[in-house]
Design brief:
Elements (H helix, E strand, L loop, with lengths): L6 E4 L17 H21 L2 H4 L5 E4 L6 H15 L10 H8 E4 L9 H10 L6 E2 L22 H15 L3
């Protein structure tokens, strides 16, 4: 923060503890699909433990962890925080505000519903056009070709934000 840098969080590595509530995954499919749960747990932990209150200038990029899970997580954290905020008095804002103001997410991998209009609804439910930054997830085997990496039906303004403006603003380029 002193040097105005963005921290990045990516799933993977060799943790000492099992990454899922049911232990170590037996198959890569289980590990890969469960990655969204790990990201959700990390986002929840960063917010409720007061990391963003302690470091109000912290900017965090969540990369290669998906993002379609984020609206429901924000709804649930906000709902439960309203009744349990006495447990986390250091949280001075509603939890989704920390996420929208201090986190950004890479576009890929995109767990998209089959119907493009439903993906656009998920983007709308994020509550901010600033959260997503373009990525293709190349060179992974499941990467999206650049021409297929963007959701279909984006407005020209949102397309420009995802392709360029959001990352430029986040990384202060």
């Amino acid at each position: 923060m002193r040097n105005n840098l963005v921290s990045s969080l990516q799933f993977g590595g060799s943790p000492g503890n099992a990454p899922t509530a049911s232990g170590w995954p037996s198959y890569y499919l289980e590990e890969y699909v469960g990655m969204a749960q790990v990201f959700q747990t990390q986002v929840l932990n960063l917010v409720v433990e007061g990391v963003f209150d302690r470091f109000p200038d912290l900017r965090l990029a969540l990369v290669e962890g998906g993002w379609t899970w984020l609206p429901s997580l924000m709804w649930r954290i906000d709902k439960d925080w309203k009744g349990l905020r006495r447990e986390v008095p250091w949280n001075t804002r509603v939890p989704s505000a920390y996420i929208r103001e201090q986190m950004r997410l890479s576009l890929q991998p995109m767990d998209a519903p089959a119907e493009p209009k439903h993906l656009l609804q998920i983007i709308e439910h994020l509550g901010s056009e600033d959260l997503l930054m373009f990525s293709t997830d190349y060179p992974h085997w499941h990467f999206a070709e650049p021409e297929q990496a963007l959701p279909v039906g984006l407005s020209p303004d949102l397309r420009r934000k995802i392709l360029r403006d959001n990352a430029r603003a986040w990384y202060r380029l």
